[in-house]
Amino acid sequence: MAAEAGITRAGEGLEGVSWNIMGQTYKPVQLSESSFAFDTLFPSGTFVPPHIHPDQDEFIRVLEGEFELMLDGEKLHAKAGDLIRMPMGSTHGIFNNSGANTRALFWVAPSRRLYDLFVKLDGLTNPPDVVRISAEHNIHFLPPPAEA
Asked: Would the N or C end of the chain have less CB density within 10 A of its end CB?
């Protein structure tokens, strides 16, 4: 799929698409073979557990609010204006523990099957299903840490 010229209007997804994935809102804003970008809204208390994209670089520009991250075992914080860089193969988890909504623009390169994954995850609420379907699309969640 080739990139298309045009404008994706603020607050809209391509062709009006919007997904609810585990309480977060994702709206695709750009899609081509080389990259996939999506606007997100993470309500306070929502998160994406630690996972790996073996064949995609992932980036996040925080637009409003802040994220707490686990990136390759290191705890980091990013606020509005910051760019988070997660090279392919890195382990990363994204958490909104701020007490307010966080809006961000995410993108991956290349796009691989992430768009198709989000189509399948839309509306799912059972974490084991999310983990299984994600693995089928080469996104691998890590097991929870052992209790101390």
From this structure: C
- Spatial separation of the C-alpha atoms in residues 85 and 26, rounded to whole Å: 19
Structure tokens at 131: 């983990």
Length of the chain: 148
| Residue whose pair of structure tokens reads 């209007």 in the numeric block | 9
The three-state secondary structure class of 55 is coil
Residues 6+ apart with CB under 8 A from 128: none
CA–CA gap between residue 143 and residue 90 (Å, rounded): 15
pLDDT tens string 21-66: 999 999 999 999 999 999 999 999 999 999 999 999 999 999 999 9
Q: Which domains does the chain have, with CATH numbers?
A: 17-139 (2.60.120.10)
Largest CA distance in the chain: 52
pLDDT digits (tens, 9 = 90+) for 5-15: 999 999 999 99
Is it the case that residue 148 has pLDDT exceeding 90? no
